[in-house]
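Hello forum,

I keep getting stuck at the same step: I have a sequence, I want structure tokens, and every attempt I make locally crashes halfway through. Rather than fight my setup again tonight, could one of you with a working pipeline run this one for me? It's a single chain of 442 residues.
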Amino acid sequence: MSVRLGRREIVMGFIAIVVANLFVFTLDLIDQILIFSVLMCLVFGYLEYRKEKNIMSLGNAFTIYWFFYTHSIWLNLKLGYVPNEDMDNLLTLTLLSMVAYLSFQLVYFPAKSSPVLELDRTEYDVKLLQYVLAVFFAIGLIMQAFFFARVGFSTFVNLTRPQRSLLLSETINFSFDLLQIIMILGLILYVTYKAKPFLYLAILSLVHNVVYAIIIIDRSMLLEILLPLMFMGLAFGKIRPRTVLIAGTSLFVVMSYFKVLMSNLLFGRNTPFDKFRFNSEFEGWYYIGSRILTELKNGTIQLMYGQSYADTLINLIVPFTSTEPLSVWYVRSYFYDMYAGGAGLAFSSIAEALMNFGYMGVPLYFAFLGFICRWLKVRKNTDTKYLFFYILVFTVLYKFFRAESYSLMKTTWWFYVLPMLLVFLVAKKAKQSARDGGSGVR
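Reply #2:
Ran it on my machine without issues. Output:
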């Protein structure tokens, strides 16, 4: 029997959270926030699992990312790491993040659950898809070969992260994105069509990107490889939910010490392991948001009234514009030495929403993100391209919290979505032409 849950269940669950939290009002505000959020995550996580029968859904992934991006700063406070920021601003940002979470879930959650995974095996020209992925693979390797021949692989590996950023252009980054596309889509197509060329290309792309991510000690790239693998393993019945929970917990611990561990193993360094703390990358948006809140209160910066979102929409049509992303503006305005050296910082979707429409911008933007995820959720099991885009969003979901709309949408649209939409369109047209010509199903 299918389980149908909607806004009524959400409201009832939320009321249960509030009632439960009444019993902890004797605790301090931070403890109340943490307990309230844990209960809220458990309610939404349980309801989402009952609907989707999959612990690795977009809704649950959003919940996990939201919890750590919102609460790591307070968990670290409990561990003795005191943030050097205005506490009123930090609490305001926490409340806004809660509003963001509820806005996302109120749009995303009520969507009708997708049926069992049943992809149409006759919709696309399989041979053409094999050729396209092989060409993508060759292009990616050739681009990297030229890059490393010019820079020198050993020189590149030993550079600091800011120094690498000066060398890495969007072109060379695109080559790694190509291999990421091949890994994800190759595995989907292999499971769907049982054609081994897809599997070979996926494995080669997987090994290449894993080795590269380890050598340059890039945990975000490694996560973007491992998370879709875990998702597909679970979706296609190759691994069990318990395996995902164990692997996910282990991965969290390893990633907390990944940079120190890899530096010691690969380069023979003797960097000590510090006292455990939740990763500082979860806190970065707080410091950015606190500064933006202060500047808005002081009148140093004015509301943009949607200008940054308009720039994002324009960039979806025009690939090259003179727009300066807010992440670049922020570094140039407040950390000019870093900007002059070519380094950068992540930004914050909540800070961008504040800069555009004040407090109201937060629920509006996250409701929009919830709509995108909802749209993919109801279609992912009906078509290969929708499943690919669902996994793509699942892979980059953490950027919902640490990137402004321009940086998030530009990379995703031009490097992933648009090229693959064209590939799927051509493969579908080729299949239709073959049918019309009487050649039958390949």
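The chain has one domain: 54-442. If your local run keeps crashing, start a new thread with the error log.
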